[in-house]
């Protein structure tokens, strides 16, 4: 299990409901299901959706962020390697929209990417850590911890809790 997922699950009660934003092919979702969590997974990639539907005990939602068509509140949000692929406006809107789906004291995890100081960007649209922090605070979240990735310090890990 990756270190961020271990930190994330340490915050969760047994059987927690988790919303995985940008779930991809479901590697993380599958691991969380094996640990007894209930999963809702959002993606819009046809190959990812097909892979996700093969997982047991998961609700798969075909949607494009920041729209999150979920009617129930969840205990936690997992959003790894997804935000930088959205526009700056959609990144901030996703954080805001997702926070409305968290139960009080719910936990969220985001991985984000800072701009490349050399100016060499790919398709990613990185936000500065200051903008991400402000977006989390504006969404009514309390920042628990934030740190750069050990292998690539342009990537950042964020853990926050809903008030």
Please give a structural write-up.
This protein has 163 residues and is α/β, with parallel strands linked by helices. It has a single domain (3-162), classed as Vaccinia Virus protein VP39 (Rossmann fold), CATH 3.40.50. Helices cover 28% and strands 31% of the residues. Strand 4, helix 4 (88-99) and strand 5 form a beta-alpha-beta unit. The chain starts with a helix and ends with a strand.
What is the number of helices?
Answer: 5
CATH C-level class: Alpha Beta
Structural class: alpha/beta
Uncertain spans: none
Helix content: 25-40%
Q: Ends: how far apart?
A: 28 Å
Shape: globular
H/E element sequence = HEHEHEEHEHEE
Please tell me how large the radius of gyration is: 15 Å
CATH T-level topology = Rossmann fold
The CATH superfamily label reads Vaccinia Virus protein VP39
In which order are the strands of the major sheet placed?
3-2-1-4-5-7-6
What about the largest sheet?
7 strands, mixed
Query: How many domain units?
Result: 1
Rounded average pLDDT:
93
Architecture (CATH level 2) name:
3-Layer(aba) Sandwich
What's the total count of β strands?
A: 7
| Strand percentage | 25-35%
